[in-house]
Automatic annotation (TrEMBL):
Listed name of the protein: CopG family transcriptional regulator
Amino acid sequence: MGLLKDSDRRTTSVQWPDEVDAHLDLLVRLAAGEGILISRAQMLSALVADANLDKNVVATIARRYLSNLNEGDLARTAPPEQHLPVVRHRGRQRARPA
């Protein structure tokens, strides 16, 4: 048996708000700041693999996202970015909104 990160893959297409996408980039940069080089896809996989499976916790998270989080909430809780490393992503670069 090998590592989960090296097992068979499934390609998915995810659409989400720009602010959530920026938050994923922030998580990757936070890991890089601790010396852990991880891709966006690997970070998503890590978050899902580590997710709490208690139905009440899952329901609370889903409810918070669907009805309590407002635009700008994620940005307000983010640490200062000037102390984080810049991470270059492999592959085609996504266009950033102006």
